[in-house]
Design goal:
about 290 residues; alpha+beta; Xyloglucan endotransglucosylase/hydrolase; glycoprotein; hydrolase activity, hydrolyzing O-glycosyl compounds
């Protein structure tokens, strides 16, 4: 092969690789395009050309971000790697929320712990400003060792919480029984890392060790297959209305998986807390075991 031909072919290959990498980057989405950093200054950082995002916490401040878009129903995926080592007192979050006194909210909160003890995965659902629907889990893996995918599916029939595509909780729409359900207020995606050592770890008995600061959690591969809502609260993404998430429930395999999670890894369920509800459990607790 002539030297000029070799360099020509090498140049063409290099250009092809650059184009391919740009296509991959575009299809993966970018935190620059999707998110606004909301507090914490330099503690919140978008990295790798928009592919990664890190949040840090020190004794002066935590940090956070929110989606540029509002959504009304959809599937929301985020990969997280949580604060390693002694994370006691820290809370890392990934959730949906509207604004105002009567707000709706769907929560994943990750409550840190002292070294060697498991994280607590805290889930909750608010509708019209009222929550008190907590379920908590210990994970079957180390969430600080690698990235794992946390998913919220939100449609008019139910909310499904998934971890690595394994359902851990379903909150069904029981409006017919008088239970409020979030379905009319658009929500943004939020994430944060903050100090909550007054309650987060063993009821507040274990405090944050600031000698270990800064604490850092990592986020990547956010995807919202969802109905975006415009300024006039009308859907601007009608092509998503027939997506699988819009009617998603649990099939037989999903029911088996959620039974396994709830039998083996659930550590708190408000529907079993009779001391908290001495006048009777909430109405929805008698309707579905997968709350």
């Amino acid at each position: 092969m002539a030297q000029s031909e070799y360099y020509s072919n090498s140049k063409a290959s290099a250009i092809s690789l650059i184009i391919a990498s740009l296509i991959v980057a575009a299809s993966a989405g970018s935190f620059y395009d999707e998110m606004d950093l909301t507090f914490g200054g330099e503690r919140a950082k978008i990295l790798n050309g928009g592919q990664d995002l890190s949040l840090s916490l020190d004794q002066y401040s935590g940090s956070g971000f929110q989606s540029k878009n509002e959504y009304l129903f959809g599937r929301f995926d985020m990969q997280l790697k949580l604060v390693p080592g002694n994370s006691a007192g820290t809370v890392t979050t990934f959730y949906l929320s509207s604004q105002g006194a009567g707000h709706d909210e769907i929560d994943f909160e990750f409550l840190g712990n002292s070294t060697g003890n498991p994280y607590t995965i805290h889930t909750n659902v608010y509708s019209q400003g009222k929550g008190d629907k907590e379920q908590q889990f210990h994970l079957w893996f180390d969430p600080t060792a690698a990235f794992h995918t946390y998913t919220i599916v939100w449609n008019a029939q139910r909310i499904i919480f998934l971890i690595d595509n394994i359902p851990v909780r379903v909150f069904n729409n029981h409006e017919a029984a008088g239970v409020p359900f979030p379905k009319s207020q658009p929500m943004r995606v939020y994430a944060s890392l903050w100090n909550a050592d007054d309650w987060a770890t063993q009821g507040g008995r274990v405090k944050t060790d600031w000698t270990m600061a800064p604490f850092t959690a990592s986020y990547r591969k956010f995807n919202a297959n969802a109905n975006k809502v415009g300024p006039n609260s009308k859907s601007t993404t009608s092509e998503n209305e027939n997506q699988a998430w819009s009617t998603q429930g649990l099939d037989a395999a999903g029911r088996n998986r959620i039974r396994w999670v709830q039998n083996k890894h659930m550590i708190y369920n408000y529907c079993n807390d009779y001391s908290r509800f001495p006048n009777g459990l909430p109405v929805e607790c008698t309707r579905s075991r997968f709350l």
